[in-house]
Amino acid sequence: MLDPDEKDSAGMPLTARAVFIIGPDKKLKLSILYPATTGRNFDEVLRVIDSLQLTAEKKVATPADWQAGGNCMVLPTIPSAEAKQLFPDHKVHEVPSGKQYLRTTPCPK
């Protein structure tokens, strides 16, 4: 991929740094396009892969800045009774609306 905004001394576009993660279902799960002047963050790429693998197998989502082994979010689509069975140590967080959809759980194994 070429970065049309970044050019070399001859006026040719520099290559952009693109990262694509394709899932086992052959669907695009992540795409990141870094400008030619910005390096890639491999820790972030590995973090995303850990998250994608976890969330594909378990009924959780990962919050911003999640790290492998950290607390996860219980999917809001899971009924309370099922959440109690799947994640006995989960915690319900108070929200202004009073709804009980914001739930965290230790990272499932």
Textual characterization of the structure:
The protein has a four-stranded antiparallel beta sheet with strand order 5-6-8-7, covered by helices on one side. Helices cover 21% and strands 29% of the residues. The protein is elongated. By secondary structure, it is of the alpha+beta class. It has a domain at 59-108: Antioxidant, Horf6, Chain A, domain2 (Antioxidant, Horf6, Chain A, domain 2, 2-Layer Sandwich). The mean pLDDT is 91. It has two helices and eight strands, in the order ββββαββαββ.
Give the helices and strands, then pairings.
Layout: E1 2-7, E2 13-15, E3 17-22, E4 28-34, H1 42-57, E5 60-61, E6 72-74, H2 80-86, E7 91-92, E8 103-105
Antiparallel strand pairs: 1-2, 3-4, 5-6, 6-8, 7-8
InterPro entries: Peroxiredoxin_C (IPR019479), Thioredoxin-like_sf (IPR036249)
Keywords: Antioxidant, Oxidoreductase, Peroxidase
Pfam family, one: 1-cysPrx_C
